[in-house]
Amino acid sequence: MNWGSFEGLLRAVNVYSTAFGRIWLSLVFIFRLMVYLVAAEKVWSDDHKDFDCNTRQPGCTNVCFDHFFPVSHIRLWALQLILVTCPSLLVLMHVAYREAKEERRREKQGDKYRRKYPNPGKKRGGLWWTYLLSLIFKAGVDVVFLYIFFRFYKNYTLPRVVKCELPPCPNVVDCFISRPTEKNIFTLFMVVATCICVVLNLIEATYLIGKR
User: Domains, the chain, ranges and CATH?
Assistant: First the structure.
């Protein structure tokens, strides 16, 4: 997947962010997006290939893998990163709408033109609400995905051995997860980074409300 567009989005949003927002962008870009691209994808690249069960019953390994890995960490993180950056795009669209509106007013009024938005990127009026709602949405997305990870993978950790007795397995079989310790380290790292981002979003929302 090409994440270059997300890097460009984060750089553009940085112009209209507060100090807390810039810290959040740095965390998302360095500690979440970069870690995801550079390391996490490779760690989970062999999760199905090296998921071994001590049986040769056809279909048993696939069924057990699907049971213990209902959704891949990588795909969940990718969806989470997409959803958590989309609200920032709404802020950019709102600023672009203001700039386009100013241009239409200038063309229509000519020499009598007076700017309605001297600084289109200043967080006042509707843009203030758009920015605030984007913060709440981003924090909500991260909290929801933390809950999803917790439900799918108890305590955000993977065991070394899991026991499976689902059909067509002939009996209770032991299945071994590839590199569980390394996966647990990256999972906990991403969880901690997500929690910090949630706190920053809430602090920034409080700052905006207090400043207004």
Answer: 3-112+123-211 (1.20.1440.80)
147, 129 Cβ separation under 8 angstroms: no
Please give the Cα distance from 46 to 102 (Å, whole number). 53
- Give the separation between CA 39 and CA 19, rounded to whole angstroms: 28
Strand order across the 52-53 sheet:
52-53, 173-176, 161-164
> The pTM is what?
0.80
Neighbours of 139 (CB within 10 A): 21
- For the chain (212 residues), the mean pLDDT of every run of 10, in chain order, is 56 72 84 81 76 85 87 87 84 73 68 58 73 90 93 86 87 88 88 93 90 74
pLDDT at 116: 59
Query: What's the rounded Cα separation, in Å, for the pair 181 and 162?
Result: 14
